[in-house]
Amino acid sequence: MARYTGVYGFPESAQAAQGLADALGIPCHIAELHRFPDGESLVRLPQPVERAIVYRSLDQPNDKLVELTLAASVLRRQGATELCLVAPYMAYMRQDAVFKPGEPVSQTVIGDWLGRCFDRFVCVEPHLHRTHSLDEVFVGRPSRALTGAGPIVERLRADGVPADTVVIGPDEEAAPLVEAVAGPLGLTGIVGRKERRGDRDVTVALPFDAPLAGRPAVIVDDVISSGETIFSCARAARGLGAASLRVFGVHALFGEAIAARFEAEGLGRPLSGDGVPHPTNALPLAGMIADAIRSFERE
């Protein structure tokens, strides 16, 4: 018997929620949302589910966190005995320490909050830095932190990626993603060094001896938001002689103005995973998320 008996999605991610339900062979239900004039949310889940997967990415997270809490309360009241949150993009993970006096450790706050609502968690590239695993965030709750490399590898393989392609990560944090993309394809991988002076003031330096001259390159990163990291990395790659550039991001958070800059910078259209709904979605995540959920059944 399958561990879970239904998937609950939300209107903005209904297609991805249905894709996950199809991959698992279980029903999908979409929550009804209403926003009152003062900004309060009303969540309606008319279909009871015994053991539910709740699917929602936490980009633009503040309203969504409240709505997830309300949804979990409804499912519990309706008799759900187990709730698994699938949040392909998990918010508030970067602030894992007090960097300046007076700041919160947001990761701990959100981990405790959601840990009170859900029994298990699945996330994709959850932007952990000094934290080694999601188990440290959601204490006592089985969790899976998935790499977004698999769908990128599948797309590059399907596209017939040239054997001399170089996979580039803009900084040390991208090193695991670079290795997970380059390794299965037998490609060379390199990692840059990023100097960040602000959210939109970033410089990426690549190794001076990086073997890029005359070779195609693929830039990979977990999150693309302002685009500045990618633009700087692309300029550095071209400075070392890269013949062509493609860009893949696991999560795309940028708007139309940044998309236009990608075109202006000669980078074309980045390709992203479909965890966060975005015009650049081209990499389906449902298959690997379904595999992670099935792994819970073996525990």
TrEMBL record:
SMART domains: Pribosyltran_N. Keywords: Kinase, Nucleotide biosynthesis, Transferase. One of its GO terms (biological process) is purine nucleotide biosynthetic process. Its EC number is 2.7.6.1. GO terms for cellular component: cytoplasm; ribose phosphate diphosphokinase complex. Residues 13-114 form the Ribose-phosphate pyrophosphokinase N-terminal domain. Coiled coil: none annotated. It comes from the Bacteria. One of its GO terms (molecular function) is magnesium ion binding. It is an enzyme of class 2 (transferase). CDD domains: PRTases_typeI. NCBIfam families: ribP_PPkin. This is Ribose-phosphate diphosphokinase.
